[in-house]
Design a protein that fits this description.
By secondary structure, the chain is mainly alpha-helical. It has 23 helices and no strands. It has one domain: Up-down Bundle (Growth Hormone, Chain: A). The radius of gyration is 21 Å and the shape is globular.
Length: about 450
């Protein structure tokens, strides 16, 4: 396959290796979604087993989700050691702590091991998106990112269909132990992965961080005047997005069990069917829309769709299985599209030398504030006004996000990563300096 390498970072067309790369990275999103979905499938069981109310379960979710923030410290290493090394590390960490989750005996141990597993899962998913963003040709980039995010629906589908059998016949711990089976095959499959062209070109030119001191200094770069506006943009829209996407399925399974009278054999089917439709429609449609109508308009429309669909899903109290499946399907299609569009912005707006660092600051650290606090907030509100209205309050988030995207997001459709960086750097140079910047320049 060496003949497929290009002397320049940008490639003109898809190659056999790039298709194989997608297959290698699919496991990142599949396992990420599988693990998160397991938490949703066992939520009613864990709550009952340990006598947790909604507020306490929300706190458990909050602690676990903090692991995604801690993944920042794993992800930033990719700008020093490379994308391939870091994504290999993440799968080993995920395997270890998922196995320990399956052996936990207390709610404290369960929470701790899931917290650690989430660190490596979030870092792996982020690295997969960055690798696709750097390797795929311009006209395939948004499609690749959308497909990679959408393929995670298969993990959710597998988790809920597996739960339908396991939770009625076996212990909940079996769900986590089953998730370890494919990991050995995935690890060896990924040995064929190469370092990205853009990172290799950067390393050959001496642009990578070769020392710990340089790495620490690079952590401040996304907050420099040159990158400040794009860092703030990505951070804000992720937080608007997470207000509805983070608690959706976890609290819907509890809502379905308590308010709709569903057992595991019913609510698992609804979610699995919803994610199947999301995979077949949501991801391809998002990729097509971003290339056809642009990133900005596509992102805003998906945000509005996410807000309306999740509000409707939780407000319709009919136990009709077909109706709930249809509502869940529309919601998941909206979620996958919103995530794909936001991930595309987060991947495209930073140059190669700080792409992992910029992504980790804006997406895995500051961009997850609402993902962490929202489940706890919903749990707290749910004990007072009920789950449907507690979730409904959060639906304002994506509406605000849509306004921010339409007003401030740049249009990156049809541009190479280098062209995007050059254009944004030019805009940043035209912005007036702040008082503190003028003071530093005068010294």
């Amino acid at each position: 396959m060496s003949s497929e390498r290009s002397p320049t970072p940008e490639v003109a067309h898809m190659t056999p290796y790039l298709w194989a790369l997608m297959a290698m990275l699919m496991s990142a999103t599949v396992f990420d979604a599988f693990n998160i979905a397991i938490l949703s499938t066992v939520a009613p069981v864990i709550q009952k087993l340990h006598g947790l109310n909604n507020t306490q379960w929300g706190l458990v979710n909050l602690i676990i989700r903090v692991g995604a923030v801690v993944s920042f410290f794993i992800l930033v290493l990719a700008d020093r050691f490379g994308r391939r090394a870091v994504i290999t590390l993440t799968i080993l960490g995920y395997a270890l702590f998922t196995g320990l989750t399956g052996m936990s005996q207390s709610i404290e141990a369960f929470t701790a091991w899931q917290f650690c597993a989430r660190i490596f899962l979030a870092a792996e998913f982020a690295m997969a998106l960055i690798i696709i963003g750097e390797e795929y040709p311009t006209r395939w980039r948004s499609f690749g990112i959308a497909l990679l995010g959408g393929i995670g629906a298969l993990g959710t589908i597998c988790a809920f269909l597996t739960a339908r059998l396991v939770l009625t016949r076996s212990d909940w711990r079996t769900m986590y132990l089953l998730g370890l089976i494919p990991l050995v095959l995935v690890f060896f499959f990924r040995l064929g992965m190469r370092e990205t062209r853009r990172f290799e070109a950067l390393r050959e030119s001496g642009g990578t961080h070769t020392s710990l001191r340089e790495q620490l200094a690079a952590l401040r770069v996304p907050f420099q005047r040159r990158y400040r506006r794009r860092s703030l943009l990505v951070t804000l829209i992720w937080n608007c997005n997470h207000l509805v996407t983070s608690p959706a399925v976890t609290f819907w399974t509890i809502h379905a069990a308590r308010d709709l009278g569903y057992g595991p054999e019913r609510y698992t089917v609804v979610v699995a069917a919803g994610y199947l439709v999301g995979f077949l429609v949501g991801a391809p449609l998002a990729g097509f829309s971003m290339n056809r109508f642009g990133r900005r308009l596509t992102c805003a429309l998906y945000y509005l769709g996410a807000a309306v669909s999740i509000f409707t899903l939780f407000q319709v109290d009919s136990g009709d299985l077909l109706l709930q499946t249809a509502l869940m399907s529309v919601t998941i299609v909206s979620f996958l599209g919103a995530n794909a569009a936001t991930s595309t912005f987060a991947t495209e707006l930073f140059p190669t030398e700080i792409r992992a660092t910029g992504y980790s600051w804006t997406t895995n650290l500051f961009g997850r504030f609402t993902e962490i606090v929202t489940p706890f907030a919903i749990g707290f509100l749910a004990d007072r006004i009920g789950i449907p209205w507690a979730v409904g309050v959060m639906a304002i988030g994506p509406v605000v996000g849509a306004v921010i995207v339409l007003r401030y997001a740049p249009e990156t459709r049809g541009k190479t990563l280098e062209e995007i960086s050059e254009e944004l750097d030019g805009e940043a140079a035209l912005q007036p300096a702040t008082s503190s910047e003028k003071l530093r320049a005068s010294r």
